[in-house]
Amino acid sequence: MELTRRDVLAALAATGVAVGTGAVLRPEPEEDSPIGDHDVATLVAVAGVVYPSAVEGVESFVSEYSVTRVRDRPEYAAGVADAVDALDEYTRDWYDADFADLDAATRERALSGMDVDYANPDPGGSDRERIRYYLVNDLLYALFTTPTGGELAGIENPQGHPGGTSSYQRGPE
Amino acid sequence: MAANEADDVDRTPSDRVDVCVVGAGPAGGLVADRLAAAGHDVVVIEAGPRFDDGARERRMERDIRPAHGPDSVWEMGGDRDDYSSSGDRDYPLNAARVKGVGGSTLHWQGMVMRLHEQDFELDSATGVGADWPIDYEDLRPYYAAAEQELGVAGASDNPFAPPREEPHPLPAFPPSHSDSLFAEACEDLGIATHSVPNARLSESRNGRSACVGYGTCQPVCPSGAKYDATIHAQRAEDRGVRVVDRAPVQRLEHDDQGDSVTAAVYATPDGREHRQEAREFVLAAGGVEIPRLLLLSATDQYPDGLANSSGLVGRFFMDHLFAGVGGTLDEPTRQNHVGFNTTESHQFYDRADDTRGAIKLEFLNYAGPSPVEMALDGDDWGDELLDRIRANYGTHVAVGAIVEQPPRAENRVRLDPERTDDHGNPVPDVVWSLGDYTRRTIERANEIQRDVLEALGADVEWAVGPENTGPAFHHMGTTRMGDDPEESVVNPQLRTHDLRNLTIPSSSAFPTGGAMNPTLTIAALALKAADHVDDRL
Fold it and tell me: Do B381 and A152 touch (CB under 8 A)?
């Protein structure tokens, strides 16, 4: 299933970013962005691990979402950048490369090796807990509050998305 | 967004006003709005902050994402909100309330039913609890007015509801897909189902959006379709009312004769205390903080606290209990599209005798976890995560119930002298336990719920019964209403027996609580009290 511009707008709305349908979504950080190209590339790489394989259009979705999401939230952006640093530090120790530069299988091994899958999401916690919060859970929250993510899971109007009051009345197709 | 940030708001008191209202929740907002409309000079003093409406999606994110505790959504907790819970049952007080402009309607579910006629005469009808000093007919016009104020969406299809004079202001939300499954099962069992009156807009109204289905009604509605008391606080301000936030009232002062309140003493974030003088005082701070404030206001003349000559301030604390049974079907049930319910049954509400209390059955539209919640708290990702979500979402069903708790003197709110809040005042101690009557009622609710799920063909997977039940977060009974000053705190006009200018339009005035969500009745009492205060002014 293809993630679209509509999904980016929905994911941003679920985080409180005020975006109209005519909003300009930038896939790359601007000069004054609180996160940089490497942070965005790392988020795209993490999404490659944590998103289901049936999802398409991940790179543009994650880039446009993450750059816009932190535009007016420097504290959150600092948390993202800090989590990326922590993840890179781990992969440099174990694999001699930044996370984004690893191949897909090694990325998954690295996240599992850090026990990020078993970590509690905590913005003020340990490395793995911050990675779970700022990278993994942020991306999963974005995906599963969109119409496409909801459809993937079997619900047209997922929690967190203002999809109206018709779908709850309908029976299964 | 944070409530403890410094600001430059002027919180000094106004010159003596007509009315000082303590608390900016639904009761305080409605009273202030009504009295301002009648031309009176009103000040509202609110302990919590004025929240930023624009941050509601962020609050929704805090609710859905598991890193943040539920109390953090509306910034509850810390020394300001410290409390004790010393009864047989733990009482999670800070999950049960919000301090701020809008009060607990900021996080409420938004279900708004009128009490039944029998609720007003429970002692006479069954020998349980107490009679109210007013009856349904006394409150009936105020219920109608409250439904207009709150913008209630409902239908007149409930065969068990008390008589009403006109349709609800807005059409009811149509039934859900799962409602239609329940309706068939209930019909087989001879159980009548009907719509739910909701304080959320089924159509746009007065510039507010109709519900758009965020699915997070409790604890936050990002669209504003669910009623909350910021609406009346704002309207009151538009009429000239002054709403002072972040100003917890520390105590009330009275005159030398001890028959009227002269001032509310409140603290401000700059560490100062101020005195707001008024001709009339209205306490609208909920069923826990109201008795606490009266007890904190003890003087030499009233060593047991204000308005407490009966000794009943804080006594007869009641809540409703949750009972529920849930499971799964072998077909899609389409849950979690919205965060509110659309079908109930009041068939088991009225009591035949003293063997059990009222039961209000609710057929849930949000049984089981939502996909996004599952995605965020698992230990898997990628295709494995999606497989788990698909396997676990979509076939859940559940029948909940609100169950009555009768008034018992040993259940109470008192001061805990061992612990103090951020201003050095003893914190409230909620002493709460369940009696046999309530246990029997929960057991009966569970029996009905199991019958329904069995008729539906569901695999029953969980139950909430007498041992693992919890409160519905409805604080009632702690300044009960009555005619006899020796057996009650406020009179039928909601005015305290002891102090002639002190009014308490709150669920704390309920002599019994029935099994209906209390806010519509709180609103009706607030409108009634406003009329009485207006008459005196």
Answer: no
- Which among B437, B408, B400, B349 is positioned nearest to B119, based on CA atoms? B349
- Band (pLDDT 50/70/90 cuts) for residue A31 is confident
Domain ranges for chain B, please list them: 1-79+99-152+222-310+475-537
CA B8 to chain centre: 32
Q: Which residue has the tokens 């902050």?
A: B49
State phi, psi for A83 to the nearest 5 degrees.
-65, -40
Per the CATH hierarchy, to which homologous superfamily does domain B1-79+99-152+222-310+475-537 belong?
FAD/NAD(P)-binding domain (3.50.50.60)
Q: Which residues of A touch B375 (CB under 8 A)?
A: 140-141, 143-144, 153
- Decide if A160 and B365 are in contact by the 8 Å CB cutoff: no
Query: How does DSSP assign B223-284, residue by residue?
Result: TS-B--THHHHHHHHHTT-EEE-S--EEEEEE-TTSSSEEEEEEE-TTS-EEEEEEEEEEE-
Number of domains in chain A: 1
ipTM over the 0.85 cut-off: yes
Nearest 5°: CA angle at B58, between B57 and B59?
A: 90
Q: Is B221 in CB contact (< 8 Å) with chain A?
A: no
A128 touches A119 (CB < 8 A): yes
Asked whether residue A99 is domain-assigned, the answer is yes
Say whether B129 sits in a helix, a strand or coil. coil
| Edge-to-edge order in the sheet of strand B84-85 | B84-85, B426-431, B412-420
Q: For residue A106, is it within any domain?
A: yes
Q: What averages of pLDDT result for each successive group of 10 residues across chain B (537 residues)?
A: 67 98 98 98 98 91 92 95 97 97 98 98 98 98 98 98 95 98 97 98 96 96 97 98 98 97 97 97 98 98 98 98 98 97 98 97 97 96 98 96 98 97 98 98 98 98 98 98 98 98 98 98 98 98
How many A×B Cβ pairs under 8 Å? 164
Residue A14 domain flag: yes
Q: Which domain holds residue A145?
A: 5-157
Residue with tokens 């007890």: B295
Q: Does B463 touch chain A (CB under 8 A)?
A: no
- Tell me, yes or no, whether A169 lies in a domain: no
3-class state of residue B413 by DSSP: strand
Query: In this structure, are residues B402 and B196 in contact, taking their beta carbons and an 8 Å threshold?
Result: no
**Separation of first and last alpha carbons in chain A:** 18
The two structure tokens encoding residue B424: 């050095």
- Cross-strand bridge partners of residue B343: B363
SS3 B198: strand
Please judge whether B216 and A159 are an interchain contact, meaning their C-beta atoms are less than 8 angstroms apart.
yes
Starting at the edge strand that comes first in sequence, how are the strands of the sheet with B343-345 ordered?
B343-345, B359-363, B396-403, B321-328, B459-464
Give DSSP secondary structure letters for B60-128.
Answer: HHHHHSTTS-GGGTTT--SGGG--EE-SSS---GGGS---STTGGGGT---B--PPPGGGGBHHHHHSS
Would you say A163 and A156 are in contact if contact means Cβ atoms under 8 Å apart?
yes
